[in-house]
Design brief:
Strand content: 15-25%
Number of helices: 10
Low-confidence stretches: none
Helix content: 25-40%
CATH class of the largest domain: Alpha Beta
Bound molecules: zinc ion
Shape: elongated
Structural class: alpha+beta
Largest sheet: 6 strands, mixed
Distance between the termini: 18 Å
CATH topology of the largest domain: Aminopeptidase
Number of domains: 2
CATH superfamily of the largest domain: Zn peptidases
Length: 371
């Protein structure tokens, strides 16, 4: 089956979605895109449920059939690009690539989700299992307002497919993802004049420096654990001993045990300078999605279905997390990286390899038809 025939429909929908800008915090803009996505799904016969949100775009659920044992397809319609980005980086296709804000992450994924249904219907091969789609609107801000919905919808599903782009140019699916956490360290010292009363001061920046080195060194590449102190603040002027300093950091782990190791150190930091006060916060935002036996079985089944279509798929992973992490934690089969392949996401050079959209479309159709 040659999917080149579907290219005009795919590209026209992709252009439409990319040209409606949808930064997470621009609720009205995201809703404009949401309305288009809901209309497209509804044209394909879905029943639509809109979940209103106060601060971000309303979330959209599209259902074909109901009951347990279904397919759960997950995407997000928000992007990291502010309104007006389109003027600087318009949607266009050149050579093998297609450019535009959010084209890779992940408007192409949304197109694949919708076009899969169109093709299955055209072939008269809609699966007997129910299909549920979730179009998230706060994924780029950490899915704080959507994770419970994702978990509720994923329950009792036979297979979850997440249409984030593959972060690897070999197009591998994300069969594992790191968990992501973050922390905050606050140090209270004592202000004093740096000339007249240096000894009476307690330098919060000095204290924070000792703690930063200790925490940053929890990084363990062999275990896949990384710590990144990403921002620091403190002090007001060079002639004042600073009374306050703080730092924020990012944690990436492959196992929950590794997160616990890091968290224990951060929560129990002891001041090096007598009398300094340290306060910390540390949370695991998205749990790790390790490569388990269930993942292995799920991937192998997908590989077999793909092979019957003459397609080869490979297993890979990513240091970043997605909504797949929440589903994996529930012990439900999940394959991520089902969106296209490209580079430069979250940057002005974001592009997708156009052919990869058609390849993933073919793969998704086969998975839903033959699972
Ligand atoms: Zn994404």
């Amino acid at each position: 089956m040659d999917y080149a025939a579907y290219k005009p429909a795919v590209m026209s929908l992709l252009k439409k979605l990319v040209e409606i800008e949808s930064p997470t915090y621009e609720k009205a803009a995201v809703n404009r895109l949401g309305a288009v996505v809901a209309r497209e799904a509804s044209k394909l016969g879905a029943s639509i449920e809109i979940i209103p949100k106060k601060t971000v775009g309303d979330q959209i659920i599209a259902r074909w059939g109901s009951g347990p044992g279904g397919f759960f397809l997950v995407g997000h319609i928000d992007t990291v690009f502010p309104l007006g980005t389109l003027d600087l980086m318009p949607f266009y296709e050149e050579g093998a690539k297609t450019f535009g804000p959010g084209v890779l992450d992940m408007k192409a994924g949304v197109v694949i989700m919708l076009q899969t249904i169109a093709i299955l219907q055209e072939m008269g091969q809609m699966p007997k299992r129910p299909i549920t789609m979730f179009f998230n609107t706060d994924e780029e801000m950490g899915s704080y307002l959507s994770r419970e919905i994702v978990k509720k919808l994923a329950k009792d599903m036979a297979l979850t497919l997440v249409f984030e782009p593959s972060e690897n140019l070999d197009g591998s699916l994300h069969t594992w993802r790191k968990g992501t956490g973050k922390f905050h360290i606050k140090v209270q010292g004592r202000a004093a004049h740096s000339g007249g009363a240096h000894q009476k001061g307690l330098n919060a920046i000095e204290e924070l420096s000792y703690q930063i080195v200790k925490v940053q060194r929890l990084t363990d590449y062999d275990k896949g654990t990384t710590i990144n102190i990403g921002s620091i603040q403190g002090g007001r002027a060079i002639n004042i001993v600073p009374a306050f300093a703080e730092a924020d950091g990012d944690i990436r782990v492959i196992t929950v045990d590794e997160y616990k190791r890091v968290e224990a150190v951060i929560r129990n930091l002891e001041p090096v300078l007598k009398e300094a006060l340290i306060a910390t916060e540390c949370i695991l935002n998205r749990p790790p999605m390790p490569y388990t036996e269930l993942t292995d079985a799920t991937f192998k089944k997908a590989q077999k279905i793909a092979a019957a279509e003459g397609m080869e798929i490979i297993a890979g992973g990513s240091g970043s997390a997605s909504d797949a992490n929440f589903v994996a934690e529930m012990g439900i089969p999940v394959l991520d990286g089902m969106g296209g392949v490209g580079e430069g996401f979250h940057s002005e050079s974001e592009y997708i390899l156009t052919q990869s959209i058609l390849d993933r479309l073919k793969l998704t159709v086969a998975l839903l038809r033959d699972w």
